[in-house]
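Researcher: Quick test of sequence recovery. Tokens follow.
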């Protein structure tokens, strides 16, 4: 197992950082039916300021609100049923900086992969469409939504936490108990 970790670390050092410089929605995994706080992180690796960021939301996810981001204005894109299907943020992102654009969405009740296509526009008129397949030069970000082992792991963590609390209270009680007369030295 340690050899795999060393190999993974070595590989990550060999891959240029530019390969990771694209619009990404976090978290990369989530739970079915969850109200999730997603964050669209967009870096500016060009020589011109980013001035507009557009995203189309997957039909399976129901976006319900946005956070305010200093220096950026968000305009939700609605369909004919007034459902939020996308958003456009406008502002100024200088070169060699990034911005995080948070929003809340309700995940679908069934396992799926959410695809988040993003278009990044620059002050010089250039546009980058982060809409491709995972192995492309401009991949769309994805989030895997499923019945999470973390949810059952969360219950296990709670049981372990209560057990630890119980043991701590027993130890505290024993340490505060007066010593019996025969044990003084």
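Model:
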């Amino acid at each position: 197992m340690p050899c795999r970790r060393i190999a993974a670390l070595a590989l990550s050092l060999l891959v240029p950082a530019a390969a990771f410089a694209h619009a990404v929605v976090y978290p990369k995994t989530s739970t079915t039916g969850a109200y999730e706080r997603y964050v669209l992180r967009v870096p500016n690796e060009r020589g011109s300021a980013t001035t507009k960021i557009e995203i189309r939301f997957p039909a399976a996810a129901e976006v319900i609100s946005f956070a305010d981001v200093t220096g950026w204005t968000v305009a939700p894109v609605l369909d004919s049923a007034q459902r939020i299907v996308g958003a456009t943020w406008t502002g100024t992102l200088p070169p060699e900086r990034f911005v995080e654009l948070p929003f809340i969405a309700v995940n679908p009740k069934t396992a799926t992969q959410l695809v988040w296509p993003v278009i990044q526009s620059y002050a010089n008129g250039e546009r980058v469409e982060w809409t491709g397949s995972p192995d492309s030069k401009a991949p769309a970000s994805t989030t895997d939504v499923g019945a999470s082992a973390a949810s059952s792991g969360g219950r296990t963590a709670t049981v372990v936490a209560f057990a630890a609390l119980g043991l701590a209270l027993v130890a505290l009680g024993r340490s505060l108990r007066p010593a019996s007369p025969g044990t003084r030295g």
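The longest strand covers residues 84-93.
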